[in-house]
């Protein structure tokens, strides 16, 4: 499976052209640094079981499959699975903070 980090490394290498040819091992490191800085969108995380749901950060926002409703980890139930994480708890907290500071 190709990850967002793999795709970012490919895009960086293409953008840098001949320069990248001299430093092929640097591209994945640059892509990982971008991911670590929160500058890459994470790959979709599918939640299929109650155990996976319980392991999520309680601040996460999800979209459930049956009705495509938007849920928090507090309002989603097993009947709404599978679901995909729309925003991680960290992203939700950062968005909330940005709104408070606006």
Structure notes:
This protein is an alpha+beta fold. The chain folds into two domains: 4-36, no CATH class; 46-101, no CATH class. The chain has five helices and four strands. It has helices at 4-16, 18-21, 26-36, 50-55, 89-101; strands spanning 46-47, 61-64, 70-72, 83-87. It has a four-stranded antiparallel beta sheet with strand order 1-4-2-3. Strand 2 and strand 3 form a beta hairpin. The longest helix is centred in the first third of the chain and has 13 residues, at 4-16.
Please state the structural category.
alpha+beta
Spatial sequence of strands, sheet with the most strands: 1-4-2-3
Percentage of residues assigned to helices = 40-55%
Number of domains: 2
- Major sheet: 4 strands, antiparallel
Poorly predicted spans: none
Distance between the termini: 39 Å
Q: Quaternary arrangement of the chains shown?
A: single chain
Tell me the strand percentage band.
Answer: 5-15%
Mean pLDDT: 81
Order of H and E elements: HHHEHEEEH
Note the total helix count: 5
For the CA atoms, what is the radius of gyration? 17 Å
User: What global shape is seen?
Assistant: elongated
Number of strand segments: 4
């Amino acid at each position: 499976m190709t990850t967002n980090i793999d795709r970012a490394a490919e895009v960086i290498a293409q953008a840098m052209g001949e320069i990248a040819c001299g430093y092929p091992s640097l591209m994945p490191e640059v892509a990982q640094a971008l991911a670590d800085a929160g500058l890459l969108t994470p790959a979709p995380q599918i939640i299929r079981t109650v155990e996976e749901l319980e392991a999520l950060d309680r601040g996460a926002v999800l979209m459930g499959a049956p009705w495509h409703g938007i849920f928090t980890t507090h309002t989603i139930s097993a009947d709404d699975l599978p679901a995909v994480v729309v925003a991680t708890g960290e992203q939700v907290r950062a968005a909330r903070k940005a709104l408070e500071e606006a």
